[in-house]
Amino acid sequence: MKPFVEKLFCVHTGQENRLSGLRIGTERYRASVPLGIELGTFPKLYKTNMEASYRHKLRPHQFASGSLAIRVKHWITMNEPWTFTILGYAEGSFPPRRCSVGAAGECSVGDSGREPYTVAHHIILAHAALVRLYGQNFQVRQYCNMFYEKKIFKSRMITEFNRFMDPLTRGDYPNSMREHAGHRLPKFTEKQTKMIKGSYDFIGLNYYTAIYARNLLNTNGLNRKYREGVPIGPQAASKWLSVYPRGIYYLLLYTKMKYNNPVIYITENDDARIDYYMKHLINVRRANRKGMDVRGFFAWSMFDNFEWTDGYTVRFGI
């Protein structure tokens, strides 16, 4: 990858290759699993002092390794925290496959009612600690942010979106979330609240699809994500992905109204290629005309990647 990147950027001057027109964004964590987590110690591990852990593992010179720091304008802390906390520790369908016995996944160990809260809580603290460490040692007014994966169904906004956005904007979880989770949801100290509140320069928002949401205690075999047996839009290459461009418009307006119009970059969005992009960009433009501050749109992705549990069987590269 290095030789390819060097062809796109002027190595000696550190200036971007204007002919390529490309800009680099980089992530510090994207669901890579250290050995301690793979062995199932993640919840316990993240009860340690995260700031000290990051100070040890992410030394300032790592931000500035080689000439990369000159070129990177958008630094990312975490990607899709909801995905690896809920699917990894509540449902057990993603690594490290922890969940309560009898939950959706086939898990031998875990606690679906407690561990997802613990893991997400310390992910938020780790994000804020990294932002502070970066700002103290190597910030030339670049950006540091946290990514969110949203499938925009209003009845689940608290569990999928607000649980991360509220701490970053107001310093604590939504009140309704605290009422529901009770003692299972950890509390931020006063010092931690000050550290996490406002710990971002922009919000990276991953949007793919939407689903119908219904409050049914007994589904009688019905798929609650469908309406009268029909999904919200045509299916793309991935079985879970129904194309619904209008959803990104509603999500952007919701974010604008609830969180005081933060700077947004659309950071993951792709699958049905040209038609998919065109319709989603039209809806992003609609939101911008309503006053939304969307400054960028990233394609997911330039190359095929090793996709979560699907490996290379699902292709996203353009």
TrEMBL record:
Q: Which residues form the signal peptide?
A: none
User: Record's family?
Assistant: Belongs to the glycosyl hydrolase 1 family.
- Does this entry carry the keyword Hydrolase? yes
- Which terms does the record give in the GO molecular function aspect? beta-glucosidase activity
* Pfam families tied to this protein: Glyco_hydro_1
Q: For this UniProt record, give its keywords in alphabetical order, as a comma-separated list.
A: Glycosidase, Hydrolase
Q: Which organism is this protein's natural source?
A: Dendrobium chrysotoxum (Orchid)
Q: Which InterPro entries match?
A: GH, Glyco_hydro_1
Q: Name one GO biological process term.
A: carbohydrate metabolic process
According to UniProt, the name of this protein is Beta-glucosidase
